[in-house]
Amino acid sequence: MASRILISPTFISPPHHRTTLPKSPLKPFLCPSSSFLRNGKIKCKAASESSQPQGSIDGTVYQGAFGPWTVDPEDVREVVLYRSGLVTSASSFVIAASAAFLPDNFGLKEIVEQNLNLFYLIGAAGLGLSLYLIHIYVTEIKRTLQALWALGVVGSLATYIAFAQPAGESLVQYVLANPAAVWFVGPLFAALTGLVFKEGLCYGKLEAGILTFVIPTVLLGHLTGLMDDGVKLTLLGSWMALFVIFAGRKFTQPIKDDIGDKSVFMFNSLPEDEKKALIEKLE
Fold this sequence. Notes:
Blueprint: H1 2-6, H2 27-30, E1 37-38, E2 42-43, E3 62-64, E4 67-69, H3 73-97, H4 107-114, H5 116-133, H6 139-164, H7 171-177, H8 182-203, H9 206-224, H10 229-249, H11 255-259, H12 262-268, H13 272-282
Antiparallel strand pairs: 1-2, 3-4
Helix pairs in contact: 3-5, 3-10, 5-6, 6-7, 6-8, 8-9, 9-10
């Protein structure tokens, strides 16, 4: 089915000029919305047709690197789930991190501290969902982010079972008291850093770009002990605010932005012989 759609001879005129982000050597590999080139001959374009193709939610047809494609209901569900995972992760992080700013005699702080493990689990699950659904052209990069997430989850679980639980502490409290534990939970946050880096690079989101530096700075500062508590709290507060802005602003983007050039993913799913046939036809 995919091959019949991709080899379709339909040609669509490109849209009017649109502003693009500064070029980066990583952008074609990470960004689903960036132009995609193959052998310098095929360039991704987007446009609409008057007739609504089967499965399209709004009748818009996009001409991709390997043929026309449309946004179908399944695409919409995936994008909404991807963005919801980010909101879940951001919300859990902000609630958990708020304990650092609440006064000691405030009842809400005690409630948050008693449920830090729960918030950590929910946040990690939300991030995992987003990393599962994220659209990145190069599969190896996506798998690397997912592997970092999995390594961080395993490290977090091992740290909790082996150290935090016997000490009667939550995982977060143990990591705060024992900076070396960052080595075990760090890969989870490295995966988050990779995700916000991709979003900042692809869509020019300032908050995502700043988060790319804030997240590792906080973790490395805590790990090395070279950062005093005042600086850490300031950066933590910045992390909280930027994470909320980043996750919320994802819902202001068109659905197609997080899909990218769907024809590339369809092409990658084809058998090798059909890939060769399609390339010959396009050339």
